[in-house]
Amino acid sequence: MARQLQLTFTFDVLESLAELTPAELNLLKHAQHATEKAYAPYSGFLVGTALLLDDNSVHIGNNQENAAYPSGLCAERTALFGLSALLPERKILAMAVTARRKSEELFIGATPCGACRQVMAEYENRQNSPIKILIQVAPSLFYQCHSVGDLLPLQFSRENLLIKG
Ligand code: THU
């Protein structure tokens, strides 16, 4: 029988807003606020992301849709690409992600899609320090992950391209 490897990862499960630290709550509020400017006329699903940077500032993003559906972009990548274009030297300490349906106030949450995880991993590798991820997965349920690497095991990275430095 082939040798087997098992990968496990541990994350925190927070079952109410009261379990978040003030800093986590503040970042989540920025992500929730960011849903207000999402452009999602086709899905009606508003996603907001907030990035906490190493100078303690916050950079946000939201999903931007398009009549040619695949041309749209998720909130996480909108935030990350925007930040990298503007302030490429800043390190990201943490990222919060949430979502709600248009015309509804309740945040039902969303977990980052696979393509966003790949982009998140790129920036985590580039800055060489972990990005914590706070994901709202239901109105009163949050997952706190310690790094993007945990969310994307066996990831494709620059090492696969044999690029050094
Ligand atoms: N969406 C995000 O913004 N982030 C995710 O991680 C999942 C999905 C957006 C894309 C699209 O605008 C809408 O949610 C419905 O899929």
TrEMBL record:
The keyword Metal-binding applies. It holds the Pfam family dCMP_cyt_deam_1. Coiled coil: none annotated. It comes from the Bacteria. GO terms for cellular component: cytosol. The keyword Repeat does not apply. GO terms for molecular function: cytidine deaminase activity; identical protein binding; zinc ion binding. Belongs to the cytidine and deoxycytidylate deaminase family. NCBIfam families: PRK05578.1 (NF004064). This is Cytidine deaminase.
